[in-house]
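Form 7-S
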Amino acid sequence: MSARFSAPILLPLLFLFLGAGAVLAAPVDNAWQPKKKKIIELSWSNPDVDYLVANVRRMEAEAPLDGITIRLYGRTRQVNGKDYVPGTPTAFGREPWQADDFADAVAKLKTVTFTRFTDNFLQATVRPGDVDWFRDSDWDAVAGHFAILANIAKETGLRGIVFDPEEYAKRFWDHARLETDQDFATTAAIARRRGRQWGEAIFREYPDIVLFCLHLFTLGHPETSLTSAFFNGMLDVLPPTATVVEGHENGGYRAKNAADIDAARLDKDWNALPRVAAENVAKYRLQVQLALAFYVDAIFIQDNSWHQILGPEADRDPAGFLRRQLNRALDVSDEYVWLWSEKCSWWSQSIRPSITQTWEDIQPGALAAVTIARQPENFDFAAANLLPNPRLKDNGEPWMFWQTGKPEVKPGRDLRADGLLQLAGVNEGCFHQNLPVEPGATYILKVTGRYETPTHGFAAAVVTYQNSQGAWEHNHQQTVSLPKSKVGEWVTAIRVFRVPAGVATMSFQLAGTCLGDGVVSFQEAYLARY
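Output:
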């Protein structure tokens, strides 16, 4: 036995925590399932329609992403003696559009066939922002613009619109900056009306749209910003078929560790609630998702001003930092995580001439970081494995066996056959190994097994800890159940997790509980630093 493994240790009250897992394994008709998690890209390299038509196959081959954002331009025309181009960069302006302005672009976009990029959006901003809250014609134009964009998104098979409310031109969200004699309450009331007008235009054209806002109730100070009123107006008319996304840009950009990502979840679920009208709280709870953000330049480019915020965590292993943070963000976000890029691109030959390098060019491992975060099964478990005998051969050594009660009460609980570790008829028991771990480090586990017979019990990989005095730290245990499957079908469970502070030893367990006459086999088990 390797010297790093201790002698068998007592596993007191092992299945107190597994009891909760057993409930999860019980069959439920039409059980709720989480949405598939996806990573989408926003950047200075986001394509227009012509570029997309010519390059989509190469983009999908090079970028490990689930979706992109698209700039849309209409036909150029003269306005006040100057060229005017209707389109997503000028969506928050007072110049009216016509649907026919975009006929050529829409026809081209309909010819694009996506394979990897399944969740794609039109990207709109609040440029030029030359709108007056109290001028109906301005807001008729804005609502008309977004009605056209929503219709195009629906007709071309896009998921919806990414809306960036950050003011890059004229400032109009902050009441203190407005040139108006109206007080804040009066202006907020009209802003809520404009939000309803904006939302009605969008949802009328695309009732099941995803309206992806890079900021929602996380933008502006609640006592002076009109964003709360505006977005509450949108929620007033939100139909049950639509989804709104809170992109929480600042929370994601500043996240240095898993705790910061968890704090962003708390911001969305609780801290933002005082900005949500009471009549909209139910919609906010059910239909507003959290999608965390990463500013890739801040991670990989050291002279970026945001890089200083991320500090030494991003310096030691930039690609590993992105991989770990992405993985946690995918756990915490409801459906989407988004990446913002400026100086480099995820694909070669960017549409922006000044961008000549990919992220992989300047940071080897960047592509793998995103790929593995999206699909942890792509991690090289064999190369990094910390467990001896991961394929469970040679009579299972050095795996140790433990179960509650006396082993002689019922035989056949500790079976090893055909190179597999089996639990047969076990009430509460496991195979286990014990090894030292680094507090605060991130690990990944992978377990493959199958149910050999029908059973109401369940099997799982379990991780629990002891501190340096040998006391158990059950509050931080991880239980990763094997998915219930057809008898004899191999299934795999994977989990990324962070070791808590103050622990010294990990007990890694292949466990089963309440199997009755059932039998479960484990084929392989891996544990690695992530």
